[in-house]
Amino acid sequence: MSKATREAYGEALKLLAANNTNVVVLDADLSGSTKTSEFKKVSPERFFNVGIAEQNLIGTAAGMAIAGKIPFVSSFAMFAAGRAFEIIRNTVAYPKLNVKIAATHAGLTVGEDGASHQAIEDISLMRSIPNMTVINPADCIEAKQAVLKAAEYVGPVYIRLGRMAVEDVYDDSYVFEIGKGVELKDGKDVTIIATGIMVQKSLKAAKQLSEEGIDARVINIHTIKPIDREIIIRAAKETKAIVTAEEHNIIGGLGSAVLEVLSDEYPVPVKRVGVLDTFGESGKPEDLLEKYLLTETNIVDTCKKVIEIK
Fold first, then answer.
1. 7, 38, 54, 296: which is the annotated catalytic residue?
2. Contact 231, 219 (CB under 8 A)
3. What does pLDDT average to over the chain?
4. Could you tell me what percentage of the chain is helix, strand and coil, using 3-state DSSP and rounding each to the nearest 5?
5. Residue 66 is assigned to a structural domain of this protein
6. Whether residue 112 lies in the annotated active site
7. Last residue of a domain, which of 115, 140, 167?
8. Which residues of 194-214 are buried (b: 16+ CB within 10 A; e: fewer)?
9. Are residues 71 and 217 part of one domain?
């Protein structure tokens, strides 16, 4: 089944509306796109549209958190993380307030909206803030559980969600845990560490590699911060070569986080698949992923290169 993770966000909010009276939802006049409209349908008295005012969105949520509420705030990732950065840093993260920022339309797969709306820096921005937890789900099953877990977690959380429909990685037996990576496929020759929509492409790349006699491990790092150091170090020790894959600038995102872990603990050859420090452009999502080399073919080629270095 293919569905956008923003759709799962709307479904999770409806569950929270019924099960947690402290949850409130705030939006910056994009509720139809962010799917917070699903919460508004069932609990309009706890839904607040602050208008196109993202800094006020975060500030209002901070006040509600101080009053004991659990605010979920949403806008497009470019505006939620970018325009509101200073308010998130000083008003939410510094006092460690219980605000959940669920940002949709992240990455190149916003598509035709173009570079001005394609947030490829948001993970870097959010993980650089002390006290912030950063989650990037791979599919709708993971996204729904991540939202529900974020509501239970006490402290600031940034959840990255997408516009484009993605295939399921998991089934209903899956259990999401903040800060714990998931090994989706074992392998001994190379490890692909992926996040978000690149998890699906990494699994396809691993299948292609196996047909060529290369045994690739695949790990989903859904929580960029706090990152699962143990699963990364173990993969480095056992496969001796790492490829990271993300729909984000290669500067500051998953690849950088993995490099930080390994440079501290167990250096091995690492290559990164991601946006190569450039802005996107308007186009169909799949065409953009192809142009900017966020493909299973490039993951395959990159795995072969890092194995040669090993």
1. 54
2. yes
3. 97
4. 45, 20, 35
5. yes
6. no
7. 167
8. bbbbbbbbbbbbbeebeeeeb
9. no
Give the 3-state secondary structure of 159-192. EECCCCCEECCCCCCCCCCCCCCEEEECCCCEEE
What distance in Å separates the CA atoms of residue 184 and residue 171, rounded to the nearest whole number? 12
Query: How far apart (Å, rounded) are the C-alpha atoms in residues 288 and 211?
Result: 27
Residue 1 pLDDT grade (very low, low, confident, very high; cuts 50, 70, 90): confident
Looking at residue 12, its pLDDT comes to 98
CATH of the domain at 282: 3.40.50.920
One domain, residues 6 and 145: yes
Does the pTM surpass 0.90? The reply is yes
Residue 172 lies in a domain: no
pLDDT in tens, 55-88: 999 999 999 999 999 999 999 999 999 999 999 9
Tally of CB atoms within 10 A around 48 = 18
Instruction: Say whether both 156 and 215 belong to one domain.
Output: no
Backbone φ/ψ region at 196: left (φ over 0), alpha (ψ -120 to 50), beta: left
Q: Is the pLDDT of residue 27 over 80?
A: yes
Q: Which two tokens stand for residue 48?
A: 């607040």
Q: What is the mean pLDDT of residues 163-189?
A: 97
Exposed, middle or buried by CB within 10 Å (0-12, 13-18, 19+), for 1?
exposed
How far from chain centre, in Å, is Cα 63?
26
Within-domain flag for 173: no
> Do 152 and 234 share a structural domain?
no
Structural domain count of the chain: 2
Q: What is the pLDDT of residue 310?
A: 87
196 and 83 assigned to the same domain:
no
Which residue range(s) make up the domain with 255?
182-309
pLDDT value, residue 294:
98
